[in-house]
Design goal:
The chain is mainly alpha-helical and about 260 residues long.
Length: about 260
Amino acid sequence: MSIVATRRDTTAAAVATALASVGALALLVRFALNSDRGQQWDDSAMRTVIAGRDAQLTLLSVLGYVSIGAILAVALACAVVALLRGQPRIGAAAAAVLVGANLTTQILKESVLERPDLGLGTLNSLPSGHTTVVASAVGAALLVAPGVLRPAVALVGGFATTLTGASTVVAGWHRPADVVAALAISLLWTAAVAAVVHGPRHPVRGTFVSAAVGCVSGLAFLVAVGVRPAYGWVGFTQAALVLGAVTAVTAVFVAAAAAVSPSE
């Protein structure tokens, strides 16, 4: 599982990934926020999954750990790892991802983006702040982690990001597009910073598998605690598509963030 590819630099992949993230974010804003059909689909998707009282309490407990304190703890851990590896600039890069992604999300949501009145409310919730906190932490951790540990980081990161993003949808805090927008912003910052601190690229093929396993495990946890289709078996397909899409996009985010992170 630790098969290593030919030595390459991360710059080209990082720049391409950053540009793709900008494009994805622009499309989300255009369609999910500023079109009648997009708002309807996004709002309907949020309502396809529900959780009982006990499940709601479990998910709210999980979301309660996502805070400014969590960001500071991750930043400190990244700084320690970077110093132990003798690469303080990577620690600074990780801090830039954390600060940049979360500031971008808050500025866009509170001051830049507006939700037009198309019959479904005007309160903008795109991008998701909770998802950005966790996703940016995963991007930062992948930047500082040595190559041999990246599959493990991808596994845990995939689980945590899927659980957080999907939980905000189940709790009714965010629509799916809000979660995907947060992933795009976090990947944008991870890739942009990786392009600046570029270095040798030794992609470990097991990282993608680990990311996928972590994300699927996060989805399985949601089902295990009681997340269900809102309309019973009639709505099973739609609910599966919504949660499956969030899980798949999260796996792509984790794998891409790992792929653009320099190995040294």
